[in-house]
Write a structure and sequence with these properties.
5 strands, elongated, single chain, 7 helices, alpha+beta, two-stranded antiparallel sheet, three-stranded antiparallel sheet, Fusion Protein Consisting Of Minor Coat Protein, Glycine Rich Linker, Tola, And A His Tag, Chain: A, Domain 2, 286 residues
C-alpha cells in the first residue's frame, strides 16, 4: 500500500509540474481556428461606351418638283400617246413624205362586196383605203396625225353615220372628212345589213396601212378573258371557269373557207411590219 501511495503522489507531482510548465510557456488549451485572410471589398465597375460624334451628312441636291402622272381614260389612251408632238426634222435633211395610195380597184371592190367574214373585213379595209387615197400626200410635220371614226353604212352603201372618236391632228381629220363627203358611190354591204365599224385613218409619212391577212379568219374567236377571282364582296364567291370555245358549224366553216382569198406578199409584209412596230426595239434595231 505505501508503495502505491508513493506512485500516485509521483504522478500528481509530475502532472502538476507539466501544467505549470505549459502555463508558463503560453500553450493554448482551446482549439483556435486558423486566422482568416482579410476579405477584400467587391467593386462593381460600369463601362459606358460613348460613340464618336457624327459628322453632318451633306444635303442632297434639290430635285425639281415632280408633276403627278395621271392616266388618261381608256378610250383616249392611244390618242394621248400619239398626241406627242412629232420631232421637228433637222434643217439639213428634207422632210419625209408619203404619197396617197391608189384607190381600190373594181376587182378589189367586187371581192369586198362579197366577203362576209370578220364583220366584212375586206369592205372595211377598202373603205379606209378609198378615204386615204383622196387625202393627198402626207408630209412630215405638224399636220401629220391619226384620226379614228365610227362609221355606219346602210345596206345600199350609203353613209348614214360618221363620228370622230379621237384625233391627233385637226388637219388629218379635216382632210378625211372632205374625202368621205366626196367619195364615189359604194357597193352594197356584203351581208345586206347595216355595217357598223371603227376605222383609223393614218395621215403620216411613216404609216403602215398595208392590206390585211385573211388566212386566219375562219378560226374561232378566242374567249374573252374575265378574271375568275373577281368578287364584289357581297354575293357568294364563286370561281368562274372559262367558257370553252364552241366549235364552228361544219356548213358555216365550209362557207367561210370558200371565201378566203390568196394572201398577197404585200399583206405578209404589212403584217410583219406591224408586228415590228408593236414589239420591236428602237435601241437594238430589232
Amino acid at each position: 500500500m505505501p508503495r502505491d501511495k508513493n506512485f500516485i503522489a509521483l504522478l500528481l507531482t509530475l502532472a502538476l509540474h507539466a501544467a505549470v510548465w505549459l502555463l508558463a510557456s503560453g500553450y493554448p488549451f482551446q482549439h483556435v481556428s486558423p486566422p482568416q485572410s482579410p476579405k477584400t471589398a467587391e467593386k462593381i465597375v460600369f463601362l459606358e461606351l460613348i460613340p464618336p460624334p457624327r459628322k453632318p451628312l451633306p444635303e442632297p441636291p434639290s430635285a425639281p418638283p415632280s408633276t403627278p402622272i395621271t392616266a388618261p381614260p381608256p378610250d383616249t389612251a392611244l390618242a394621248a400617246q400619239a398626241t406627242a408632238p412629232a420631232p421637228a426634222p433637222s434643217p439639213d435633211r428634207p422632210r419625209a413624205s408619203m404619197a396617197a395610195p391608189p384607190p381600190p380597184t373594181a376587182e378589189e371592190w367586187a371581192f369586198a362586196a362579197q366577203y362576209t367574214n370578220k364583220n366584212s373585213k375586206g369592205y372595211r379595209y377598202s373603205w379606209g383605203q378609198q378615204v386615204r387615197s383622196m387625202m393627198g400626200t402626207a408630209v412630215e410635220g405638224p399636220h401629220q396625225g391619226v384620226v379614228r371614226f365610227r362609221i355606219e353604212i346602210a345596206p345600199d352603201g350609203r353613209l348614214t353615220q360618221l363620228q370622230t372618236l379621237w384625233t391627233t391632228s385637226d388637219k388629218a381629220e379635216q382632210l378625211a372628212r372632205q374625202a368621205i363627203e366626196n367619195m364615189p358611190p359604194l357597193p352594197p354591204t356584203p351581208t345586206g345589213k347595216p355595217l357598223i365599224f371603227d376605222k383609223t385613218i393614218s395621215f403620216s409619212p411613216f404609216a403602215n396601212d398595208g392590206p390585211p391577212l385573211y388566212r386566219d379568219d375562219c378560226l374561232p374567236e378566242p374567249p374573252v378573258f374575265r378574271n375568275p377571282f373577281a368578287w364584289d364582296g357581297k354575293s357568294p364567291q364563286v370561281v368562274a371557269s372559262p367558257t370553252p370555245t364552241a366549235p364552228m358549224d361544219p356548213q358555216a366553216l365550209a362557207d367561210c373557207l370558200r371565201q378566203l382569198p390568196q394572201d398577197s406578199v404585200e399583206a405578209e409584209t404589212a403584217r410583219d411590219q406591224r408586228l415590228m412596230d408593236q414589239w420591236g426595239s428602237s435601241k437594238t434595231g430589232r
